[in-house]
Write a structure and sequence with these properties.
Helix content is about 70%, strand content about 0%. By secondary structure, it is mainly alpha-helical. The protein has one domain: Orthogonal Bundle (MetI-like fold). The longest helix has about 35 residues. The two termini are about 25 Å apart.
Length: about 300
């Protein structure tokens, strides 16, 4: 009988070389990442502005005022609608496109490049182009609608249509990124699963439902959470799309990031804006923890299935 004795791990010279070499980089990254978060939480507890030297401690009053503020509640509502609207269309859409490309269509590489092109295109030119297409007088959308007898729509002036416009543009911009992730996940699924399912008559849509979707669950969770996080941080496209409306981008579509920036740098209410930033940080943190928990739960269930 052979006894396997675990060797005690010891740091050698090469380990210390890596630690010493990486320590400054890790320290700098931690400083740039975590110090601003801590500072923001600290400022949120004060009546802090950029002019007065008197910054009284107010505790949680900024947060209480925040949830009693109509502009903030409207921004939270709009941001949530936009985030989940992007999720509803971007994730299933990218999954369907990835599935079609995975089956082996002609010119697959060209289609992949075509769908991924909006992802690598900067947001500013994309938003400017969409702003022209959504123009109520000379826009491309209203031009096509006129063929069906539909009157011109005020895409960027109506609150509901403005939210729809932001969702459409953001889905178009991000769907290629999700598609690539799903496509990589599908490539990693062994063909043996589909061959075994085909023997039981599970082909086509059934194979996609009973084989592809369950095996893509971790990737689907990851893509969904990332999409929601990006949705809650939406700002640039709204700022550009609605820049000419009443002189304020937040007049029609007010979102959390815009409301935070306006309070900080227009009204100089840094404490109040920091409280908004903390709320946004907590939303993103909850979504991230949910993704980690769901991924861990999926890993545990897989181990149990193997046993």
């Amino acid at each position: 009988m052979q006894l396997h004795v675990k060797k005690k791990f010891r740091l050698n010279s090469s380990h210390w070389f890596c630690i010493i070499g990486l320590a400054p980089i890790i320290a700098l990254y931690a400083y740039l990442r975590f110090i601003p978060i801590v500072k923001t939480m600290y400022i949120s507890l004060f009546e802090w502005d950029l002019i007065s030297t008197n910054k009284p401690f107010v505790g949680l009053d900024n947060f209480v005022t925040l949830f009693q503020s109509e502009p903030f509640l409207m921004a939270l509502k709009n941001t949530t609608i936009i985030a989940f609207g992007i999720l509803i269309f971007a994730v299933p859409g990218s999954l369907i496109i990835a599935s079609m490309l995975h089956k082996g269509v002609r010119f697959k590489a060209w289609y992949e490049a075509l769908y991924f092109l909006p992802v690598i295109t900067p947001m500013v030119p994309v938003a400017v182009t969409w702003k022209w297409m959504l123009d109520s007088q000379h826009g491309l959308f209203n031009y096509f609608l006129s063929f069906f007898g539909v009157p011109p729509q005020a895409w960027l002036f109506d609150p509901v249509l403005a939210v729809v416009s932001v969702i459409m543009m953001t889905v178009w911009k991000t769907i290629g990124y999700n598609m690539i992730i799903f496509l990589v996940g599908m490539t990693g699924i062994s063909k043996e699963y589909y061959e075994a399912a085909a023997l039981d008559g599970a082909t086509g849509v059934k194979g996609f439902r009973y084989i592809t979707l369950p095996l893509l669950k971790p990737i689907t969770v990851f893509v969904s959470i990332i999409t929601l996080i990006h949705g809650y941080n939406v700002f640039s496209q709204i700022y550009i799309l609605a820049s000419d409306i009443q002189g304020s981008p937040g007049y029609v579509v007010r979102v959390l990031v815009y409301d935070m920036i306006e309070n900080a740098f227009r009204y100089y209410k840094m404490g109040y804006a920091s409280a908004e930033a903390v709320v946004l940080f907590l939303i993103v943190l909850v979504l991230t923890l949910a993704q980690l928990w769901l991924a861990k739960d999926n890993t545990t269930s897989r181990k149990g299935a193997k046993r």
